[in-house]
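Hi C.,

You asked whether I'd gotten around to modeling the 438-residue construct. I have! Everything is below, sequence then structure, no commentary in between.
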Amino acid sequence: MIWGPTPPDVNRHRNNKRFDQRNRTGAARARVVSQAVADGRGIPVDSDLWAGWRAYPLQCPDAAHIQSEDGTSAPWRTQISAIELAFELHMLRAAIYVFVAALTLMRDSEVQEIQRDAVRTYFGSPAVCSRKTKLDPTRPELYWWIIEPVAEALAVLEHLSWHPTHLFATLRPPTGKQTHTEPGIHSDAEIDFFINGVNTIAHRHGLARIPPSHVRSHMFRKTMSQLAGREPDSEVALGLQLKHAARRALANRTTQAYAQMDASWAKEFDTELQQAAARKLVDLLRGRRQGERVAVGPGAARLHAGLDKVLDTIDNNPQLRAQIADERVEEALLADEFPNLHLGTINHCMFDAPQAECQDELPVAQRGLAPLLGACQPARCRNSTITRAHAPYWVAEEDDLTARSKEPGLSPPRREAVFVRLTDVQRITRALEEEGTA
């Protein structure tokens, strides 16, 4: 292998007869190769193993340095071969695809339609221009607003792509008799390659491993929509970015519904349960504003105090008070006030480990991590609150216990246990009957 300027026929011909010194042209080629090796611009490779040059390492004195978790710094690579270079280029393209798809909210087809010079200015902000292909045969040219790192990633991809128009294409251009020049990549395989690639080199570069899972491009769009949907006053901007503006004029809730969290996405978000709990509390907050006692149970006083604190924050902040119609403002404040609220069928738990009855059933080393549902004492634990939504379950249990207490064949110890439980339940049901008065 020879790098640097050489006569074009030297690297093209790999048949050793081309370097036969018994003829003038062969001897000339041999002298060029010998001089290139002597100058340090070549690698002598066995002619029967021409592919061996792809594994030959070259030094990388200008490689970027990366910071490890322990604070040390090291170059990304100290040497690289042609095989490793192909891997790095593939990883770079895959990383750019993931980055652009995640941060622009574009569909896979729209990302792959990005062409050269696609970064523009749209209404005074940087944007990327592409074409919408889904359900629209006219393929209109549209704009998606972007941040500077996305523009930088697309600039890098412009240098990487060989295709005359599109940025996402195969890494190698067609050669010889190949004429296929269609753009596009297999995004599913690209995402899998990126995840596997990161996990393969994670130990070498101090990267965090990506948990193996099924990841596809539409998940980036859904995830970012839900993240953006949590922000106050974001619905209009989100609708424009998702290109739902036309449908919003007719339905008005398309974007909001798309950005709404759902249970299937819960495992993708560390804060999903916190946000879901906050949404449940919005109605309680509004009832509390009207002076209602919205919950009963041992933890009701704590819940009411937290709701009152949120109301005071809103009332004393003119900007928040002006946004009171936006539920997301209330959700954000409630999520901060009740970070450990766990929703339940028969009660809600404002988990505080030192006060939790359920923690007494656990070994000391395992206490304080999460509620132990099987040991919950909703009528006695100071973390427990019961709302009107829980009332049907408590009334049904009271009826069931009352009927069981009258069974003639019940043993005295069992009958006593039923009455103890019935007393706890009636304490809650009687309180629920009085709920609504401050």
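If it helps when you're writing up: Residues 82-104 form the longest helix (23 residues).

Thanks,
B.
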